[in-house]
Amino acid sequence: MKYSELRQDLVSGDWILIAPGRARKPEEFLEKRERLRAPKEGCPFENLEAAGGGEMIAVYTSDSTVPRVSYHKDWRVQLIPNKYPAVFHDGFAAKEKEIGPYKTVFGAGYHDLLITKDHNANFPRLSKNDANLVFRAFRDRYAIFLDDPDVAYISIFHNWGPKAGASVYHPHYQMIALPVIPPDVEHSLAGSKRYFQKNRRCVHCVQLAWEKKERKRIIYENNCAVVFAPFVSKSEFEIRIFPKQHLPFFEDTPENIMDCVVEALQKALKLMEKSLKDPDYNFFIHTAPLNNKNRFSHYHWHIEIIPKINIPAGFELGTGIEINVVDPDEAAKHIRKR
């Protein structure tokens, strides 16, 4: 791709500027560095009873059929309340209130940390069993919130490295249960609905079919999941992972398909670490909201991975148009060849 090109996202309608002429080849502008590995001594997650903001929520061992609710020496995954939560659940309902011309909602919700045992094993380095346990813990906790009237949406995400917002080196994952649907998810849901009403097809399934036909941006594929660089990538080396089957809700995903998605996520992160010189990154899950499930059958849940390569500047902040200096075709090729 020689010249710049504006591309419109099929779901959100947002415009993205692909401008490969602003950068050199991918391998020439990626930062080479050694990751600073914090020692175990002094790590708050080596003593979870002191690190949490309350009693342990769930403890998983390698052979757990049912999670424990107390410490076990052979634990592999633990779920604890965040000691410094963004939202609180202290018996206050998430009621709307008007203050002048503004609408507010009390910040009722839950903010949990999911912590894996090995101090140096981030998600791509976990054993297959431990990686599956992480997602099992997500779903188990998810089920607890289904009947909570104060929970409209659950955000599941992972920050790896200081540029991605991780303040503690020890690998950990976060779940925040919110009383509102986040704006980015609202836009995705609305765009998905618009496309379905016009075409009677899932917009994400259409994207998947086209990516599989073109093959240029496919990074990895297994029986139940596809990893690809989106044609309209908002940032350099953005990656998305979709289950092949149309599934609106993360929590309703069959176990065999979830295992495939987990395997694809580990593979994608391994390839990204090797090809992009171990960047900091975020990954998060976009899924349909908990309530009124009949309204969201048009949606298709997925995982997005955003490596922290560039920082948005004045143009992006002033226009809402992201500039991506790496052609997604070249991004997929670069990641895939590793």
Automatic annotation (TrEMBL):
Q: Tell me which residues make up the DUF4921 domain.
A: 108-335
Domain of life, per lineage: Bacteria
The positions flagged as active site in the entry are H172
Please name the Pfam families in this protein's record: DUF4921
Please give one Gene Ontology molecular function term for this protein: zinc ion binding
Any single biological process term in GO? galactose metabolic process
PANTHER family per UniProt? ADP-GLUCOSE PHOSPHORYLASE
- List the protein's name: DUF4921 domain-containing protein
Tell me which species this is from.
Answer: Candidatus Colwellbacteria bacterium CG23_combo_of_CG06-09_8_20_14_all_42_19
